[in-house]
Amino acid sequence: EGLAIDPERVEAIRALPLPSHKKALQSFLGRINFVRRFVPDFAALVKPITKMLKKSMAFKWTAEGKESFEAIKEAISQAPTLINLDFSKDFILYAFG
Asked: Could you list the residue ranges that cross the membrane (predicted)?
């Protein structure tokens, strides 16, 4: 029980090829934006490819950009199911740092 990404959507995203121009990259980012709440550190994962959209930069894939593209697709394929909290039960909170 909970909220999960439709497996067919996950497979559709995984099958997307590396975008070949800025408009295609914008389209990819728009397509994956709806799943951002399922992916921990989504913004950090997509940062290298969002930098490629700057007008001052020529569109060219770097190793970091390609790694980011594949990492976000992998993170989406492993996204957890989100559940509603049951406030009638006790919570255990762990803090790191």
From this structure: none
